[in-house]
Structures
1.
Amino acid sequence: MILDIEAGDILPAKDAIALMDQTDLGPSIDVPEIPENAHPENITEEEREFLQGEVRRLKKERNALILAHNYVPRDIQDVSDVIGDSLFLAQQGAASDADYLVEPSVLFMNQILAALKKPHQTVLAPSLEALCSLAAHADVTKIRDWKEEHPDGIVISYVNTYLEVKAESDYCCASANAGKVTLHILENSGAKQPILFLPDVFLGFYAAKLLESKGHSLDRLHLMMGACHVHERIRPHHVLEQQQLHPEAITVVHPECGCTSACMRQVNEGIVPEDMLQFRSTQGMIKLVEEVPHPEVIVATEVGNLHPMSKAVPDKTLIPASREALCAYMKQNTLQNLYECLRDLKHEITVDPELARRARIPIERMLEIV
Ligand code: SF4
């Protein structure tokens, strides 16, 4: 058994899976405070009306499209043109002809738009403090070292990575298609070609289980020991407590969560019926709550996603597995700085053209496999 593991290390999948619940996968960068005005209850109705009115006026005047991630404050979501997860925002941004693509989200998503945008477009971000603890785990030097050791290796990077990492990758994937992309590569590559999945070990585990369910061995798969500190901290006891309080509720889990392996065990051991505990991407959760008949749903993901979910199913009771699952990076986006972003046309996100060219290859492959 390998000891002394750090976040960002790369291990054979079986070792990574054995160690993922015991390794400290905390953030390697500072987690900022959530600004007071990111909480809707701290904004007066008068302020909200003014700011939302100005945002609506300015986006028309600028010919701007606002693409907001599901985890940003709900006041922003309510005034945005597109709300979705990273994959959906990338697809919608790439399809738009608006002059300004304004994206309240985090830097790695802004970079995707900047790499895909048309020549006349400008990408703007309301805050430059909106980073990501998961993307920070993807150390590009470790990836290059792995590629040197495995010259015929194939690198799949989760979309939650910076452009330098994508430029080193063969494929990108999102949580919605991580298993599908990994399976596709395994079945369409040389029998001995090693595959590296990075940076989220819980999502890598989820993809690995899909491979095993299709009869594949994990011998060729390597995983990076990275995690999102928000999802990783949704632990098995959070889900169990809510299941005990709400025995009739269906549970839906984002596969980045620290409870993923325990929840899978619940299903595999017959403790919870398969249809009562499901795994979905951020966007997939919204579709699921619309489809299932259950009036109560336990939701294991960042709590911001409950806003679009409750808009989709206003009559259902949505129960967060952990109320503390808040991404402070996403909450750096506020209605105030969105307004300033449109008013002052700041902050422009630019990317190195050569890096963008290399990163577009795995991004476009991902968009084709969806
Ligand atoms: S929720 Fe996690 S993965 Fe998403 S932006 Fe925040 S830190 Fe990154």
2.
Amino acid sequence: MIPPPLHYEPMDSFSEKIAVVTGAGDGMGRSLALQLAAAGCHVALCDVLADKLAATADQVRAASPNVRVTSHSCDVADETQWLQLRDDVIAEHNTDHIHLLFNNAGIAGSGSMIVDDRDRWERTFNVCWNGVYLGTRTFLPLLTAAPEARLVNTSSVNGFWASLGPDVSHTAYSAAKFAVKGFSEALITDLAINAPHVGVSVVMPGHIGTGIAENSVVVHGGETDPGVTEMAATFRNSAPMTADEAAAIILQGVQEAKWRILVGEDAHVLDMAVRADPEDAYQPDFRERLGNHFDGLVD
Ligand SMILES: NC(=O)c1ccc[n+]([C@@H]2O[C@H](COP(=O)([O-])OP(=O)(O)OC[C@H]3O[C@@H](n4cnc5c(N)ncnc54)[C@H](O)[C@@H]3O)[C@@H](O)[C@H]2O)c1
């Protein structure tokens, strides 16, 4: 017998819910934390960069003094740190469940299988993929323990197009983001069968104006220099959308129970273009043919 059509109930309100946000120290994670808290959601913030995490926590507490804000140092590529995060969230939020997990943390870099260092390649892959996988494994019992819950995994346009164009290798990030998208899509049916009150969304942003270029260098253990800072500024300033705008779209998609959340006009254009012409998607002029949507995209 074919089950009834899949239908997640919209999450009417974030008020009095509990959300865990990874990569909350900057960019879309910080914006998600601020907007969730402004909507009355208690937030557990995680990041690997302590000063950025503290800055986000201060901003959220100042803007939303009525919600509970906890901050947690956690490297999402490390299962031991996830288990510690889970235990801390249970203790500090005095809870046996959470309603929302935003697997948002990610880094770029080390794109080539041929010439780049293997450890750095695997660092990018492990943060972007294992970060989502381990987070889901660790927190699924707490999500299923809530009356309604949502798992929100951040992939990328590189989850359906494994390229930035013909002049740059992009294998580690793309492989991880494809994995995040495939995992999330497969979870739709798994959750529908085994935990139908838990929904899953996969987020696929286009070019969003964040500090990811510089943060990735730091998380990889590198030094920033004027060249990195300038490249990061170009990436941020040339983006067609801000992190705040992106977070608003993500939260709207979560509330409306959408499983696929494309963020930005560029993401929509690219999605249609790849679907329309998959065989040509890696031709050197493919990106050019999309017009000026991807100007400034450097990582
Ligand atoms: N900015 C874009 O154009 C864009 C496009 C598509 C997808 N994304 C994805 O969106 C997500 C958020 O990116 P962003 O642009 O806001 O970047 P960002 O650098 O502004 O924020 C990411 C945060 O994640 C943290 N982080 C990195 N590695 C971590 C780890 N191992 N453990 C815990 N925290 C870690 C960083 O310190 C940073 O605070 C990422 O998954 C990224 O791949 C970004």
